[in-house]
Design goal:
Helix content is about 5%, strand content about 55%. It is mainly beta. The strands form 4 sheets. It has a 24-stranded antiparallel barrel. Strands 1, 3, 6, 7, 8, 9, 12, 13 and 14 form a 9-stranded mixed sheet that branches. A 5-stranded antiparallel sheet has the order 2-4-5-11-10. The chain is globular.
Length: about 725
C-alpha cells in the first residue's frame, strides 16, 4: 500500500474539513393500520394518524427564504408501504403540468420526495409526482450527477383543485433497499418545484452555501419492524417485427422476426440486486435527438437510451467516462449486480456483443463471433461526503483484448471545496499481435457556492492509453482547464447575473502546444425559466501539422414565458477549421455560422408539439464549403396517463462543395410513429413504425450498386414492431 501513502494527509484534511454537523431536523413518523387515500385529503376525511410538515424553505432562487406558496406534507407508514401525501396551494390557472410519459415531467410543477434509506448522508432515492399523478424517479448521489435511470414500482395519484393541487405517493418497502435492522432511521428531504418562479422549496432547509445536498437531509425516525420481504421480479416480453432494409451486399432485404425473452431481478439480503436478461431486446424505443455530425474532428456523444443499461448506471460512473454502454452495440445476454452493503457499494456488469462479428465477411474466422464485455466498480464511502473507488473494465474479441484499471477518489476537504482524482492504466492487444499500454490521470479542485464557483482540472492521457468501453475523444494530452465565475442574486425578475471565464491549454507528450482557449461570457437568469448567455472565445488549435487561430461570438436564449409555450435559440458566428478538405487540399480556416432555434407548444394537458431547426455552414470568401440543414417535428398526444401516441418527422441535408470538402451529398428523411401503453416501467405495450428515405439509387447491375442522387426518394429502411412486456413480482 506504499503507493497510497500520499492520501494520508488528504484524508486527515477531509475529516477535519467537514462542516460541523448541525442539529438535524428530526421527524418521528407514525404507524397506521388504515392506509391514507387521496380522497381523504380531497374531502377532508379524518385520517388515523400522520406527521404534518409545512415549513418549506427555498433552496433556489432564494437560499432559506420561505416558500412562495403554502405547502404541507403528511407522512405515515404501515407494514408494507411509506405514505407521503401533499397539499400544494396555488392558482390552478398558473400551474405548469401536463400528462406525459413516465419520467418526462422535469419541466412541470411537482412534489419531490428524497429518502436516504441507508442513512449514509450520500445516497438518496428520489420520487417526483406532478399534479396529474405522473411519476419520475431516480437516484441522487452527492458529488455525482443525478441519475434518473433507476426505475421501480410505486403508486401515485394527484388532482388539480380549486386552490392548487393535492396528491399522494405510496412507496412499497419491497421497491427500495435498506438495512435489515428492526429500527430504521432514514435521511429525508421533501421539496416542491414551482417552475414559473424557478423555485425549489424544501424541508428541511438546504443551503447552496454548503457542499452537498443529501448530506443536509433531516432524520426520519420511528420506522420499526419492516422488511422488503421476498423480492423477485420477472419481466417476460414478446416481440414481433417486420423490416425492409438495404444490407451490405448491397441489396434490398425483408425480414420477419418473432422473439421472446425474459428480464429477471432478484434482491439478495435486502441490499444487492441481480439483474439477468435472457435473449433480451436491447433496442431503444426512443430516438436520438438531432445533432450536427458533419465536419466534426472528434466523435459526437449520443446518450444511452436502452433501459437495461440505463438502470443503476450511476454505479459505473467515474470522473472520466471509463464505461460508455453504447460501445456494447448488439448484445444477446446481459447480467448486472448492483447494491450497497454498509459503506460499500458495488456494481458489476457483463454482456456479450454480436456486432463485432457481424463486421467480418462470411468465411472469415471472426465472422459470427461475439465480443465479451465486463465492468466492475467497488466504492467505499468515507466520512460524511468523501469516497474512494476502484474499477476495472475488460473487452475481448477473438485474439484482441483491452483491459483498463482505475482508482478514483472524491475528498470533501473544506466547507465548499472538493478534490477529485482518478488514476488509470490500460493494456491492449491488437489484431496484429502488437500491444498498446499507458496511464492516464485526472485531478480536479472544485468550489461550489451561492455566488462564487471555481473548478481547476488537470488531465493527462498517454499516447498508449486506450479504453475501448469508455468515451474518450482523444489521448496524448496534458491539459489544464479552469472555470471561474461569480453570480449576483438580486431579488425580483432577475434571479442571477454574473461573469464566467473558461480557459484551457493543452500540450502533447512531446511538449508540443496543441490547443489553448480563452472564453469569457456573461450569464443572466430570469423568472419563467428564462436564461441568456453571451460570450466570445479566442482559440488556438494545432491540426494536421498546422496551427490555426480562430474566434467565435455566441449567444444563447431559453424561456418558458407561458405554461403553453417554450422557446430556445442559439447563434454563433466566427471562424472554424475545415477538418475534411477536398482532394489535394489541406485543412483551412473558413467563416462559420451555426444557428439553432425551436419552440414547444402545449395547447392543453394532453398535446405537445416540438419544432427544431439547426443550421450549420462553413464558407470561404468566394463560396460555401458546406451547408447542413436539420429539421425535426415531433407531436405527442396523451389519451391518458398510461396511453400516448408520438410522431416524429426528420429531415437532414448535407450540401457540400465537393471541390472544397470530402463530405458527401446527403439527404435523409425519417418518419417515426410510436404508440405506448405503460402501466409501470415493467408492464408496457409498444407499437412502432419507422420509414427512412435517402438520396441513393440502387442498381445491382452496375458498380457501385449504390450511387448518390439529388432527392431522398429511395426507401432505405422500413420497420413495424409490436412489443409487450409484463411485470411479475413475488
Amino acid at each position: 500500500m506504499r503507493h497510497l501513502r500520499f492520501l494520508t494527509p488528504l484524508l486527515a484534511l477531509a475529516a477535519f474539513g467537514q462542516a460541523p454537523e448541525r442539529d438535524l431536523d428530526r421527524l418521528r413518523i407514525p404507524r397506521v393500520s388504515r392506509p391514507p387515500k387521496l380522497s381523504d385529503f380531497l374531502n377532508n376525511v379524518p385520517r388515523e394518524a400522520e406527521l404534518a410538515v409545512s415549513d418549506f424553505r427555498q433552496f433556489m432562487p432564494g437560499d432559506g427564504s420561505p416558500a412562495s406558496k403554502p405547502t404541507t406534507a403528511y407522512l405515515s407508514y404501515d407494514d408494507k408501504n411509506l405514505y407521503v401525501a401533499f397539499i400544494c396551494k396555488d392558482d390552478p390557472k398558473l400551474i405548469r403540468a401536463r400528462l406525459a410519459k413516465h419520467d418526462l415531467i422535469m419541466a412541470d410543477d411537482r412534489f419531490n420526495i428524497c429518502i436516504d434509506t441507508f442513512h449514509d448522508h450520500r445516497h438518496m432515492y428520489w420520487f417526483d409526482i406532478n399534479p396529474y399523478g405522473v411519476q419520475a424517479e431516480g437516484n441522487v448521489i452527492d458529488g455525482v450527477e443525478d441519475d434518473p435511470s433507476w426505475d421501480t414500482l410505486w403508486y401515485s395519484e394527484a388532482r388539480i383543485t380549486d386552490d392548487g393541487y393535492t396528491g399522494i405517493a405510496v412507496i412499497p418497502f419491497k421497491s427500495i433497499r435498506f438495512p435489515p435492522d428492526s429500527g430504521q432511521t432514514w435521511g429525508i428531504i421533501m421539496g416542491r418545484w414551482i417552475m414559473r418562479n424557478n423555485e425549489f422549496a424544501v424541508w428541511p432547509q438546504v443551503s447552496r452555501r454548503r457542499t452537498g445536498f443529501v448530506s443536509q437531509g433531516g432524520d426520519l425516525e420511528g420506522i420499526n419492524d419492516i422488511s422488503p420481504g421476498r423480492n423477485i421480479q420477472l419481466i417476460p416480453y414478446g416481440l414481433f417485427g417486420h423490416s425492409r432494409y438495404i444490407d451490405s451486399t448491397p441489396a434490398m432485404r425483408s425480414e420477419t422476426e418473432a422473439r421472446a425473452g425474459l428480464d429477471a431481478k432478484i434482491v439478495l439480503k435486502d441490499a444487492l440486486t441481480v439483474d439477468v436478461a435472457v435473449n433480451p431486446d436491447f433496442s431503444q424505443v426512443e430516438s436520438d435527438e438531432p445533432q450536427v455530425t458533419v465536419n466534426q474532428r472528434f466523435e459526437v456523444w449520443y446518450p444511452e437510451k436502452r433501459p437495461f443499461f440505463l438502470e443503476n448506471a450511476g454505479y459505473f460512473k467515474t470522473p472520466e467516462r471509463l464505461f460508455f454502454s453504447r460501445r456494447i452495440a448488439d448484445p444477446k445476454i446481459g447480467a448486472r449486480l448492483t447494491g450497497r452493503v454498509g459503506r460499500w457499494s458495488i456494481g458489476a456488469l457483463f454482456a456479450d456483443d454480436r456486432a463485432p462479428g457481424e463486421r467480418f465477411a462470411s468465411g472469415d474466422p471472426l465472422n459470427g463471433r461475439d465480443a465479451a464485455a465486463g465492468v466492475v466498480r467497488i466504492q467505499r464511502d468515507l466520512f460524511k461526503d468523501s469516497s474512494i473507488a476502484a474499477m476495472a473494465t475488460s473487452s475481448d474479441f477473438g485474439p484482441t483484448h483491452n483491459r483498463v484499471f482505475s482508482f478514483d477518489a472524491r475528498l470533501h476537504l473544506l466547507r465548499n471545496w472538493v478534490l477529485t482524482g482518478q488514476a488509470m492504466t490500460s493494456d491492449t492487444r491488437l489484431a496484429n499481435g502488437g500491444r498498446l499500454a499507458g496511464p492516464a490521470y485526472l485531478l480536479a479542485w472544485t468550489h461550489s457556492g451561492k455566488h462564487f464557483i471555481s473548478e481547476t482540472s488537470y488531465t493527462d492521457r498517454s499516447p498508449g492509453f486506450n479504453a475501448e468501453l469508455g468515451f474518450f475523444q482523444r489521448v496524448n494530452i496534458r491539459q489544464l482547464e479552469n472555470t471561474t465565475g461569480y453570480k449576483w442574486r438580486p431579488e425580483g425578475a432577475v434571479q442571477s447575473v454574473g461573469p464566467k471565464v473558461m480557459t484551457m491549454i493543452n500540450y502533447d507528450h512531446r511538449g508540443r502546444l496543441q490547443d489553448w482557449s480563452v472564453d469569457p461570457q456573461i450569464e443572466i437568469e430570469l423568472t419563467r425559466l428564462t436564461s441568456m448567455e453571451a460570450g466570445h472565445s479566442e482559440v488556438f488549435e494545432y491540426f494536421e501539422g498546422q496551427g490555426f487561430r480562430r474566434r467565435l461570438n455566441y449567444v444563447e436564449f431559453e424561456s418558458e414565458p407561458e405554461r403553453w409555450l417554450a422557446l430556445n435559440a442559439a447563434l454563433s458566428a466566427g471562424s472554424a477549421i475545415n477538418y475534411q478538405p477536398g482532394p489535394s487540399l489541406t485543412p483551412f480556416l473558413g467563416r462559420s455560422r451555426n444557428v439553432s432555434a425551436g419552440f414547444t407548444l402545449r395547447p392543453n394537458a394532453r398535446a405537445r408539439f416540438d419544432e427544431t431547426y439547426i443550421y450549420s455552414t462553413l464558407r470561404t470568401p468566394l463560396s460555401a464549403v458546406f451547408n447542413n440543414h436539420i429539421v425535426r417535428s415531433k407531436v405527442n398526444y396523451h389519451f391518458s396517463k398510461e396511453a400516448s401516441l408520438r410522431f416524429i418527422a426528420d429531415y437532414n441535408a448535407v450540401l457540400p462543395n465537393t471541390a472544397l470538402t470530402s463530405a458527401a451529398l446527403s439527404k435523409h428523411v425519417g418518419i417515426d410513429a410510436l404508440f405506448t401503453y405503460m402501466l409501470n416501467p415493467g408492464t408496457a405495450l409498444h407499437a412502432g413504425y419507422t420509414d427512412l428515405y435517402d438520396n441513393w439509387r440502387l442498381d445491382p447491375t452496375i458498380s457501385p450498386a449504390l450511387t448518390r442522387t439529388r432527392f431522398p426518394d429511395l426507401n432505405t429502411g422500413r420497420q413495424f414492431f409490436v412489443k409487450l412486456s409484463y411485470l411479475l413480482r413475488f
